[in-house]
Design goal:
Shape: globular
Strand content: over 45%
Helix content: under 10%
Largest sheet: 8 strands, antiparallel
Distance between the termini: 70 Å
Radius of gyration: 23 Å
Oligomer: single chain
Number of strands: 36
Number of helices: 4
Structural class: mainly beta
Strand order of the largest sheet: 33-32-35-36-29-30-31-34
Length: about 475
Protein backbone atom coordinates (compact mmCIF):
# COMPACT_ATOMS: atom_id res chain seq x y z
CA UNK A 1 0.00 0.00 0.00
CA UNK A 2 2.86 2.34 0.84
CA UNK A 3 4.47 1.70 -2.57
CA UNK A 4 1.18 2.42 -4.40
CA UNK A 5 0.79 5.59 -2.36
CA UNK A 6 4.26 6.79 -3.35
CA UNK A 7 3.55 6.08 -7.03
CA UNK A 8 0.25 7.96 -6.81
CA UNK A 9 2.00 10.91 -5.20
CA UNK A 10 4.65 10.95 -7.92
CA UNK A 11 1.99 10.87 -10.63
CA UNK A 12 0.12 13.73 -8.93
CA UNK A 13 3.31 15.81 -8.85
CA UNK A 14 3.94 15.14 -12.54
CA UNK A 15 0.41 16.19 -13.42
CA UNK A 16 0.76 19.36 -11.34
CA UNK A 17 4.01 20.21 -13.11
CA UNK A 18 2.45 19.55 -16.52
CA UNK A 19 -0.44 21.84 -15.66
CA UNK A 20 2.04 24.68 -15.02
CA UNK A 21 4.51 23.92 -17.81
CA UNK A 22 6.27 26.89 -19.34
CA UNK A 23 5.53 27.82 -22.95
CA UNK A 24 6.97 25.45 -25.54
CA UNK A 25 9.38 26.26 -28.38
CA UNK A 26 6.62 24.96 -30.66
CA UNK A 27 4.36 27.85 -29.58
CA UNK A 28 4.35 31.36 -30.98
CA UNK A 29 3.23 34.87 -29.98
CA UNK A 30 2.09 37.12 -32.83
CA UNK A 31 1.47 40.87 -32.94
CA UNK A 32 -0.22 42.93 -35.66
CA UNK A 33 2.09 45.92 -36.21
CA UNK A 34 0.12 48.88 -37.52
CA UNK A 35 2.92 51.25 -38.54
CA UNK A 36 5.49 48.81 -39.92
CA UNK A 37 2.75 46.68 -41.55
CA UNK A 38 4.32 43.50 -40.27
CA UNK A 39 3.39 40.54 -38.11
CA UNK A 40 5.97 40.03 -35.37
CA UNK A 41 6.69 36.40 -34.47
CA UNK A 42 8.09 35.61 -30.99
CA UNK A 43 9.29 32.36 -29.44
CA UNK A 44 7.69 32.32 -25.96
CA UNK A 45 10.00 29.59 -24.69
CA UNK A 46 13.01 31.92 -24.96
CA UNK A 47 11.22 35.30 -25.18
CA UNK A 48 13.12 36.14 -28.34
CA UNK A 49 12.15 37.61 -31.70
CA UNK A 50 12.06 34.92 -34.39
CA UNK A 51 11.36 37.40 -37.19
CA UNK A 52 8.60 39.30 -38.95
CA UNK A 53 6.09 38.50 -41.69
CA UNK A 54 6.19 41.51 -43.96
CA UNK A 55 2.74 42.36 -45.33
CA UNK A 56 3.56 45.88 -46.51
CA UNK A 57 5.95 48.80 -46.21
CA UNK A 58 6.40 50.92 -43.09
CA UNK A 59 4.75 54.33 -42.85
CA UNK A 60 4.94 56.75 -44.57
CA UNK A 61 6.01 54.61 -47.53
CA UNK A 62 2.41 53.61 -48.29
CA UNK A 63 1.17 56.72 -50.12
CA UNK A 64 2.26 55.93 -53.66
CA UNK A 65 -0.59 55.25 -56.14
CA UNK A 66 1.39 52.14 -57.16
CA UNK A 67 1.66 50.75 -53.61
CA UNK A 68 0.26 47.21 -53.39
CA UNK A 69 1.01 46.08 -49.84
CA UNK A 70 -1.26 46.04 -46.80
CA UNK A 71 -1.86 49.21 -44.77
CA UNK A 72 -2.50 49.46 -41.01
CA UNK A 73 -1.99 45.82 -40.03
CA UNK A 74 -4.24 45.86 -37.00
CA UNK A 75 -6.43 42.89 -35.99
CA UNK A 76 -5.89 39.15 -35.43
CA UNK A 77 -7.77 35.89 -35.10
CA UNK A 78 -7.03 32.21 -35.65
CA UNK A 79 -8.53 28.85 -36.56
CA UNK A 80 -9.51 26.30 -33.88
CA UNK A 81 -6.67 24.00 -35.00
CA UNK A 82 -4.14 26.88 -34.84
CA UNK A 83 -3.06 26.18 -38.42
CA UNK A 84 -4.26 29.53 -39.77
CA UNK A 85 -3.61 33.03 -38.49
CA UNK A 86 -5.98 35.81 -39.58
CA UNK A 87 -4.55 39.30 -39.96
CA UNK A 88 -6.85 42.28 -40.53
CA UNK A 89 -5.51 45.45 -42.19
CA UNK A 90 -7.97 48.30 -41.81
CA UNK A 91 -6.23 50.69 -44.21
CA UNK A 92 -6.32 48.31 -47.17
CA UNK A 93 -9.62 46.61 -46.17
CA UNK A 94 -8.04 43.17 -46.22
CA UNK A 95 -8.08 39.84 -44.43
CA UNK A 96 -4.81 37.91 -44.80
CA UNK A 97 -4.73 34.15 -44.17
CA UNK A 98 -1.32 32.94 -42.97
CA UNK A 99 -0.17 29.31 -42.61
CA UNK A 100 1.33 29.19 -39.10
CA UNK A 101 3.62 26.23 -39.91
CA UNK A 102 5.34 28.05 -42.79
CA UNK A 103 4.55 31.75 -42.11
CA UNK A 104 3.32 31.86 -45.70
CA UNK A 105 0.41 33.98 -46.93
CA UNK A 106 -2.04 31.53 -48.46
CA UNK A 107 -4.90 33.87 -49.29
CA UNK A 108 -6.19 37.43 -49.10
CA UNK A 109 -9.80 38.58 -49.03
CA UNK A 110 -10.81 42.21 -49.52
CA UNK A 111 -13.91 43.34 -47.66
CA UNK A 112 -15.72 46.60 -46.93
CA UNK A 113 -14.41 49.81 -45.45
CA UNK A 114 -12.08 49.59 -42.44
CA UNK A 115 -12.38 46.05 -41.03
CA UNK A 116 -11.11 45.75 -37.46
CA UNK A 117 -11.00 42.17 -36.14
CA UNK A 118 -11.90 38.69 -37.36
CA UNK A 119 -12.32 35.19 -36.00
CA UNK A 120 -13.06 31.65 -37.11
CA UNK A 121 -16.37 30.10 -36.11
CA UNK A 122 -16.20 27.35 -33.47
CA UNK A 123 -16.34 24.62 -36.14
CA UNK A 124 -13.71 26.35 -38.27
CA UNK A 125 -15.96 26.47 -41.34
CA UNK A 126 -16.48 30.23 -41.50
CA UNK A 127 -14.49 33.37 -40.85
CA UNK A 128 -16.41 36.38 -39.54
CA UNK A 129 -14.78 39.78 -40.00
CA UNK A 130 -16.31 42.90 -38.48
CA UNK A 131 -16.39 45.79 -40.95
CA UNK A 132 -16.09 48.66 -38.52
CA UNK A 133 -16.32 51.41 -41.13
CA UNK A 134 -19.79 50.14 -42.07
CA UNK A 135 -22.54 48.16 -40.34
CA UNK A 136 -22.06 44.49 -41.03
CA UNK A 137 -19.97 41.38 -40.50
CA UNK A 138 -18.39 39.86 -43.60
CA UNK A 139 -18.63 36.04 -43.64
CA UNK A 140 -15.77 34.40 -45.55
CA UNK A 141 -15.15 30.84 -46.74
CA UNK A 142 -11.64 30.01 -45.40
CA UNK A 143 -11.03 27.56 -48.26
CA UNK A 144 -11.98 29.70 -51.25
CA UNK A 145 -11.26 33.01 -49.45
CA UNK A 146 -14.52 34.37 -50.89
CA UNK A 147 -17.12 36.43 -49.03
CA UNK A 148 -20.29 34.34 -48.84
CA UNK A 149 -22.69 36.66 -47.03
CA UNK A 150 -23.04 39.71 -44.79
CA UNK A 151 -24.64 39.92 -41.36
CA UNK A 152 -26.33 43.23 -40.58
CA UNK A 153 -25.26 44.72 -37.24
CA UNK A 154 -25.26 48.06 -35.50
CA UNK A 155 -23.03 50.75 -36.95
CA UNK A 156 -19.31 50.09 -36.46
CA UNK A 157 -18.93 46.49 -35.24
CA UNK A 158 -15.62 46.26 -33.39
CA UNK A 159 -15.01 42.56 -32.69
CA UNK A 160 -16.81 39.21 -32.79
CA UNK A 161 -16.21 35.93 -30.96
CA UNK A 162 -18.07 32.63 -30.71
CA UNK A 163 -19.37 30.47 -27.91
CA UNK A 164 -17.70 27.01 -28.00
CA UNK A 165 -20.98 25.16 -28.75
CA UNK A 166 -21.20 27.16 -31.97
CA UNK A 167 -24.70 28.46 -31.31
CA UNK A 168 -24.15 32.14 -30.48
CA UNK A 169 -21.68 34.85 -31.39
CA UNK A 170 -21.20 38.17 -29.60
CA UNK A 171 -20.26 41.34 -31.51
CA UNK A 172 -19.28 44.56 -29.76
CA UNK A 173 -19.32 47.95 -31.47
CA UNK A 174 -17.00 50.92 -31.82
CA UNK A 175 -19.77 53.40 -32.62
CA UNK A 176 -22.97 52.02 -31.09
CA UNK A 177 -23.52 51.46 -27.33
CA UNK A 178 -24.86 47.94 -27.89
CA UNK A 179 -23.74 44.33 -28.17
CA UNK A 180 -25.24 42.26 -30.97
CA UNK A 181 -25.95 38.63 -30.06
CA UNK A 182 -26.08 36.56 -33.25
CA UNK A 183 -27.51 33.12 -33.99
CA UNK A 184 -24.64 31.44 -35.84
CA UNK A 185 -26.78 29.03 -37.84
CA UNK A 186 -29.26 31.62 -39.13
CA UNK A 187 -26.75 34.50 -39.23
CA UNK A 188 -29.36 36.74 -37.61
CA UNK A 189 -29.09 39.13 -34.66
CA UNK A 190 -31.33 37.71 -31.93
CA UNK A 191 -30.74 40.30 -29.22
CA UNK A 192 -29.21 43.72 -28.68
CA UNK A 193 -27.73 44.44 -25.24
CA UNK A 194 -27.32 48.07 -24.18
CA UNK A 195 -23.92 48.99 -22.70
CA UNK A 196 -22.39 52.11 -21.14
CA UNK A 197 -20.31 53.34 -24.07
CA UNK A 198 -20.31 53.37 -27.88
CA UNK A 199 -16.58 52.55 -28.14
CA UNK A 200 -15.82 48.90 -27.44
CA UNK A 201 -12.86 47.52 -29.40
CA UNK A 202 -12.40 44.15 -27.71
CA UNK A 203 -14.20 41.26 -26.02
CA UNK A 204 -13.14 38.02 -24.36
CA UNK A 205 -14.92 35.14 -22.65
CA UNK A 206 -14.08 33.86 -19.19
CA UNK A 207 -12.46 30.40 -19.33
CA UNK A 208 -15.78 28.73 -18.40
CA UNK A 209 -17.64 30.83 -21.00
CA UNK A 210 -20.22 31.90 -18.42
CA UNK A 211 -19.38 35.56 -18.96
CA UNK A 212 -18.32 37.85 -21.76
CA UNK A 213 -16.15 40.82 -20.77
CA UNK A 214 -15.76 43.82 -23.08
CA UNK A 215 -13.58 46.92 -22.88
CA UNK A 216 -14.74 50.53 -23.27
CA UNK A 217 -11.73 52.47 -24.47
CA UNK A 218 -13.32 55.91 -24.37
CA UNK A 219 -14.62 55.88 -20.80
CA UNK A 220 -12.14 53.51 -19.14
CA UNK A 221 -14.50 50.72 -18.14
CA UNK A 222 -15.14 46.99 -18.60
CA UNK A 223 -18.64 45.54 -18.92
CA UNK A 224 -19.51 41.98 -17.87
CA UNK A 225 -22.35 40.11 -19.61
CA UNK A 226 -23.92 36.80 -18.55
CA UNK A 227 -23.80 34.55 -21.64
CA UNK A 228 -26.87 32.58 -20.49
CA UNK A 229 -29.25 35.38 -19.52
CA UNK A 230 -27.72 37.83 -22.04
CA UNK A 231 -27.84 40.60 -19.46
CA UNK A 232 -25.25 43.04 -18.14
CA UNK A 233 -24.18 41.88 -14.68
CA UNK A 234 -21.50 44.43 -13.84
CA UNK A 235 -19.40 47.39 -14.94
CA UNK A 236 -15.86 47.94 -13.65
CA UNK A 237 -13.97 51.24 -13.61
CA UNK A 238 -10.59 50.32 -15.08
CA UNK A 239 -8.68 53.38 -16.34
CA UNK A 240 -7.69 55.85 -19.04
CA UNK A 241 -7.46 54.17 -22.49
CA UNK A 242 -8.72 50.71 -21.55
CA UNK A 243 -7.66 48.53 -24.50
CA UNK A 244 -7.79 44.71 -24.33
CA UNK A 245 -8.12 42.04 -21.67
CA UNK A 246 -7.21 38.42 -20.98
CA UNK A 247 -7.85 35.83 -18.27
CA UNK A 248 -5.37 33.71 -16.33
CA UNK A 249 -5.81 31.10 -13.63
CA UNK A 250 -3.60 31.93 -10.66
CA UNK A 251 -3.55 29.81 -7.50
CA UNK A 252 -6.84 28.21 -8.50
CA UNK A 253 -8.59 31.54 -9.11
CA UNK A 254 -9.38 33.21 -12.43
CA UNK A 255 -8.12 36.79 -12.74
CA UNK A 256 -8.79 39.32 -15.49
CA UNK A 257 -5.81 41.28 -16.81
CA UNK A 258 -6.68 44.58 -18.52
CA UNK A 259 -4.29 46.77 -20.51
CA UNK A 260 -4.62 50.45 -19.52
CA UNK A 261 -2.82 52.38 -22.23
CA UNK A 262 -3.06 55.84 -20.71
CA UNK A 263 -1.47 54.72 -17.45
CA UNK A 264 1.13 52.32 -18.87
CA UNK A 265 -0.05 49.49 -16.64
CA UNK A 266 -1.86 46.18 -16.72
CA UNK A 267 -4.47 45.86 -13.97
CA UNK A 268 -5.51 42.51 -12.53
CA UNK A 269 -9.07 42.07 -11.24
CA UNK A 270 -10.83 39.20 -9.54
CA UNK A 271 -13.76 37.64 -11.37
CA UNK A 272 -15.91 37.50 -8.25
CA UNK A 273 -19.43 38.86 -8.35
CA UNK A 274 -17.95 42.16 -7.16
CA UNK A 275 -14.66 42.40 -9.04
CA UNK A 276 -11.74 43.76 -7.05
CA UNK A 277 -8.44 45.22 -8.20
CA UNK A 278 -5.67 42.98 -6.86
CA UNK A 279 -2.59 44.14 -8.77
CA UNK A 280 -1.33 47.01 -10.91
CA UNK A 281 1.63 45.99 -13.07
CA UNK A 282 3.78 48.75 -14.61
CA UNK A 283 4.65 48.19 -18.27
CA UNK A 284 6.26 49.97 -21.17
CA UNK A 285 4.57 52.61 -23.29
CA UNK A 286 0.84 52.22 -24.05
CA UNK A 287 0.03 48.52 -23.49
CA UNK A 288 -2.60 47.39 -26.00
CA UNK A 289 -3.03 43.75 -27.08
CA UNK A 290 -2.84 40.97 -24.50
CA UNK A 291 -3.15 37.16 -24.49
CA UNK A 292 -2.45 34.36 -22.03
CA UNK A 293 -0.43 31.19 -22.59
CA UNK A 294 -2.59 28.07 -22.65
CA UNK A 295 -1.48 27.04 -19.17
CA UNK A 296 -1.69 30.56 -17.64
CA UNK A 297 2.03 30.50 -16.85
CA UNK A 298 2.69 33.68 -18.85
CA UNK A 299 0.79 36.71 -20.13
CA UNK A 300 1.98 38.62 -23.22
CA UNK A 301 1.35 42.34 -23.69
CA UNK A 302 1.92 44.36 -26.85
CA UNK A 303 3.26 47.89 -26.34
CA UNK A 304 1.66 50.18 -28.91
CA UNK A 305 4.11 53.00 -28.26
CA UNK A 306 6.96 50.75 -27.14
CA UNK A 307 7.19 48.72 -30.36
CA UNK A 308 7.56 45.41 -28.57
CA UNK A 309 6.08 42.83 -26.23
CA UNK A 310 6.42 42.42 -22.49
CA UNK A 311 6.01 39.15 -20.64
CA UNK A 312 4.18 39.01 -17.31
CA UNK A 313 4.54 36.22 -14.76
CA UNK A 314 1.05 36.08 -13.19
CA UNK A 315 2.36 34.18 -10.19
CA UNK A 316 4.21 37.32 -9.12
CA UNK A 317 2.28 39.86 -11.20
CA UNK A 318 5.41 41.42 -12.64
CA UNK A 319 7.07 41.90 -16.01
CA UNK A 320 9.92 39.43 -16.48
CA UNK A 321 10.99 40.03 -20.10
CA UNK A 322 10.85 42.51 -22.98
CA UNK A 323 11.07 41.61 -26.67
CA UNK A 324 11.47 44.23 -29.39
CA UNK A 325 9.02 43.94 -32.26
CA UNK A 326 7.16 45.84 -34.97
CA UNK A 327 5.97 49.43 -34.90
CA UNK A 328 2.75 50.15 -33.00
CA UNK A 329 1.58 46.59 -32.21
CA UNK A 330 -2.19 46.39 -31.84
CA UNK A 331 -3.78 42.93 -31.54
CA UNK A 332 -1.76 40.10 -29.98
CA UNK A 333 -2.46 36.36 -29.86
CA UNK A 334 -0.74 33.28 -28.43
CA UNK A 335 -0.93 30.03 -30.42
CA UNK A 336 0.35 26.69 -29.18
CA UNK A 337 1.78 23.80 -31.24
CA UNK A 338 2.24 25.71 -34.50
CA UNK A 339 5.93 25.18 -35.35
CA UNK A 340 6.66 22.27 -37.66
CA UNK A 341 9.77 20.11 -37.97
CA UNK A 342 11.95 23.14 -38.70
CA UNK A 343 12.63 26.03 -36.35
CA UNK A 344 9.69 28.11 -37.59
CA UNK A 345 11.80 30.71 -39.39
CA UNK A 346 10.56 30.11 -42.94
CA UNK A 347 9.34 33.20 -44.82
CA UNK A 348 10.35 35.56 -42.02
CA UNK A 349 12.47 38.69 -42.35
CA UNK A 350 14.63 40.45 -39.79
CA UNK A 351 13.09 43.27 -37.75
CA UNK A 352 12.43 46.14 -40.15
CA UNK A 353 12.24 48.94 -37.57
CA UNK A 354 14.25 50.47 -34.74
CA UNK A 355 13.07 51.35 -31.23
CA UNK A 356 10.90 54.47 -30.75
CA UNK A 357 11.38 57.48 -28.51
CA UNK A 358 8.50 58.14 -26.10
CA UNK A 359 7.79 61.63 -24.78
CA UNK A 360 5.21 62.38 -22.09
CA UNK A 361 3.46 65.74 -22.14
CA UNK A 362 2.41 67.37 -18.87
CA UNK A 363 0.17 70.38 -18.20
CA UNK A 364 1.56 73.78 -17.29
CA UNK A 365 -0.34 74.66 -14.10
CA UNK A 366 -1.21 78.35 -14.12
CA UNK A 367 -3.78 78.77 -11.36
CA UNK A 368 -4.68 77.54 -7.91
CA UNK A 369 -7.84 76.00 -9.33
CA UNK A 370 -5.81 73.99 -11.81
CA UNK A 371 -3.26 72.97 -9.18
CA UNK A 372 -5.97 71.47 -6.97
CA UNK A 373 -7.80 69.72 -9.82
CA UNK A 374 -7.84 65.95 -10.00
CA UNK A 375 -5.06 64.60 -12.20
CA UNK A 376 -7.65 62.83 -14.34
CA UNK A 377 -9.21 66.21 -15.21
CA UNK A 378 -5.98 67.86 -16.35
CA UNK A 379 -4.81 68.13 -19.93
CA UNK A 380 -2.39 65.41 -20.93
CA UNK A 381 -0.72 63.88 -23.93
CA UNK A 382 2.19 61.96 -25.36
CA UNK A 383 4.31 61.89 -28.47
CA UNK A 384 5.97 58.87 -30.06
CA UNK A 385 8.95 59.65 -32.28
CA UNK A 386 9.96 57.07 -34.87
CA UNK A 387 13.06 57.86 -36.88
CA UNK A 388 12.78 58.05 -40.68
CA UNK A 389 16.40 58.96 -41.34
CA UNK A 390 17.10 62.69 -41.16
CA UNK A 391 13.58 63.37 -39.86
CA UNK A 392 11.14 61.75 -37.44
CA UNK A 393 7.50 60.78 -37.61
CA UNK A 394 5.85 62.29 -34.53
CA UNK A 395 2.63 60.57 -33.47
CA UNK A 396 0.88 63.10 -31.27
CA UNK A 397 -1.98 62.23 -28.89
CA UNK A 398 -3.67 65.01 -26.89
CA UNK A 399 -6.42 64.59 -24.29
CA UNK A 400 -8.60 66.67 -21.95
CA UNK A 401 -8.24 69.88 -23.98
CA UNK A 402 -10.93 72.35 -25.07
CA UNK A 403 -13.37 70.82 -27.57
CA UNK A 404 -13.27 71.93 -31.21
CA UNK A 405 -10.16 74.00 -30.63
CA UNK A 406 -6.95 74.35 -32.61
CA UNK A 407 -3.63 73.49 -30.92
CA UNK A 408 -0.14 74.03 -32.34
CA UNK A 409 2.75 71.65 -31.64
CA UNK A 410 6.23 73.19 -31.62
CA UNK A 411 9.78 72.10 -31.14
CA UNK A 412 11.21 74.72 -28.79
CA UNK A 413 13.52 77.08 -30.61
CA UNK A 414 11.75 76.72 -33.96
CA UNK A 415 9.48 79.56 -35.12
CA UNK A 416 6.95 77.41 -37.00
CA UNK A 417 4.91 74.55 -35.55
CA UNK A 418 5.52 71.02 -36.81
CA UNK A 419 1.75 70.49 -36.83
CA UNK A 420 -1.63 71.88 -35.88
CA UNK A 421 -4.53 69.76 -34.66
CA UNK A 422 -8.21 70.45 -33.99
CA UNK A 423 -9.72 68.61 -31.04
CA UNK A 424 -12.98 66.71 -31.29
CA UNK A 425 -16.09 67.20 -29.15
CA UNK A 426 -14.35 65.44 -26.24
CA UNK A 427 -11.20 67.56 -26.41
CA UNK A 428 -9.12 64.81 -28.01
CA UNK A 429 -6.75 65.11 -30.97
CA UNK A 430 -4.55 62.51 -32.62
CA UNK A 431 -2.33 62.72 -35.67
CA UNK A 432 1.08 62.32 -37.21
CA UNK A 433 3.53 65.12 -37.90
CA UNK A 434 6.94 65.12 -39.54
CA UNK A 435 9.81 66.97 -37.87
CA UNK A 436 13.55 66.73 -37.13
CA UNK A 437 13.11 65.88 -33.45
CA UNK A 438 16.45 64.09 -33.05
CA UNK A 439 18.40 66.16 -35.57
CA UNK A 440 19.10 69.09 -33.19
CA UNK A 441 20.65 66.62 -30.76
CA UNK A 442 23.25 65.53 -33.33
CA UNK A 443 24.11 69.09 -34.37
CA UNK A 444 24.33 70.65 -30.93
CA UNK A 445 27.02 73.25 -30.38
CA UNK A 446 30.35 72.16 -28.86
CA UNK A 447 30.07 71.74 -25.13
CA UNK A 448 26.26 71.41 -25.24
CA UNK A 449 24.81 68.02 -24.38
CA UNK A 450 22.67 66.16 -26.91
CA UNK A 451 19.71 66.36 -24.55
CA UNK A 452 20.11 70.09 -24.20
CA UNK A 453 20.46 70.49 -27.95
CA UNK A 454 17.24 68.63 -28.71
CA UNK A 455 14.12 70.70 -29.19
CA UNK A 456 11.59 70.46 -26.38
CA UNK A 457 7.99 69.84 -27.42
CA UNK A 458 5.52 72.60 -26.57
CA UNK A 459 1.76 72.62 -27.24
CA UNK A 460 0.10 76.02 -27.57
CA UNK A 461 -3.59 76.86 -27.88
CA UNK A 462 -4.51 78.37 -31.23
CA UNK A 463 -1.78 79.89 -33.38
CA UNK A 464 0.24 81.44 -30.58
CA UNK A 465 4.04 81.27 -30.89
CA UNK A 466 5.89 78.79 -28.71
CA UNK A 467 6.25 79.89 -25.09
CA UNK A 468 6.88 77.21 -22.48
CA UNK A 469 5.64 79.48 -19.68
CA UNK A 470 2.25 79.97 -21.35
CA UNK A 471 1.91 76.55 -22.96
CA UNK A 472 -0.97 74.14 -22.46
CA UNK A 473 1.34 71.14 -22.46
CA UNK A 474 5.10 70.77 -22.39
CA UNK A 475 7.47 67.84 -22.57
CA UNK A 476 7.91 66.28 -19.13
CA UNK A 477 11.46 66.44 -17.80
Amino acid sequence: MKKISLIASAVSILFAQAAWALPSAQDRVYTADQNSNTVTVINPATNTLVGQIRLGNPRPDVLSPLYKGQINVHGMGFSPDHKTLLVISNGSNSVTFIDTATNRVKGITYVGRSPHEGFFSADGKEVWVVVRGEDYISVIDPVSFKETRRIQTGVGPGMVQFMPDGKLAFAVSSFTPQVDVIDVQTHQVVKKIDVVSPFSPFLQFTPDYKEMWMTHKDVGKVTRIDTKTLEVIGVIDTGFITNHLAFAKVDGKVLAYVTIGGENVVKAFTTDKAAKLVATIPTGALPHGIWTADDSSRIYVGLENGDGVEVIDPAGNKVIAHVGGGQAPQALVYLSHVVGADDGTANLVARVNSDPLNIRLQPVVQSAAQSTAQSSDLARGFVVSRNLGVIDALEVSLFKLKPQTTYSVYLDGQPAPVARFVTDAKGVANGTAIGPLREPATSAAPGVSAAAGAGRIIVMEGNQPADAARAVLVEAK
